[in-house]
Amino acid sequence: MPEYDLLRKTEMIIEGITLAGANLNDVATAAAEVLGFGKSEVLVTDYQENRLTIDVLRSSADAHAIVGKDAELLRSLGELPGVTIEPGAVVRSQGMLGWIAFDAAEAGEALNRAETMAEEIRSRLSRRAIVFSTGREVEEEDIKDTNQPTIAGKLQAEGYAVIQGPTLMDDRLLIAAALRQAVEEGGFSLIVTTGGVGAEAKDRTVEAVLALDPQAATPYICRFEVGTGRHHKDGVKIAAGEYGDALIVSLPGPNDEVRASMDILVEGLKQGLDKHTLAEALASNLRIILREKMGHR
Fold first, then answer.
1. Angle at 234 between CA 207 and CA 139, to 5 degrees
2. CA–CA gap between residue 190 and residue 17 (Å, rounded)
3. What's the whole-number average pLDDT of the chain?
């Protein structure tokens, strides 16, 4: 069952309870058992004028374990030595803990409806994708961006709702900020970038992904000796990282390599491959393509 955020409303008040030599640890333990919490997660914080305050030391709870449990809680406490539950005693709370006083059948049905709706929303959000191309030559329209339509078309055919994002300049901080914004503000669960994965100094996409996910998978496509030609780095890499609930995949810029990667990416998404396995599957295929290209040359 999903847990619901208590939104910092963690106090539960029992009105109509009398204590006379009661062990407060036993009171807290009994409450924890009824509510399905650990013994150390419930604490009695106050008692005065037949009013007992219990604090729940956690930030979330399973509403199904709480709903309609007020009578059971009062009965369990009333069985403890030194505890008397008066006629008309009630359990009050705000926020999610307030479910304890609801009718169990009606509240359970309401929770099931809410969870069904939440699952539908999560399912839709999990199929939202955004595609970014990178590079000055694309930004200034020196070359036509064929990668975004290629990726968007393939993902749309698989049922994704795809947005074609703006072209990103070759800057690690700017790319990382755009990726972060896509997750935190855009709510995208899949981000695909193209370009900026090479060995030149201007290629900064993989570094941007690592800024968001230091444990991102970054397998090599090929290696170079640093300092030869324009090779500022020791090779060409791709990346697959995670940020929040989103998967970020960074592919090369050549369109034939993007097209050759899409079937593997889509199949990996269907199988739910982890970022390392997915990245290596993509990289292995790209290595084959590169060897073929080098062979022709």
1. 45
2. 53
3. 84
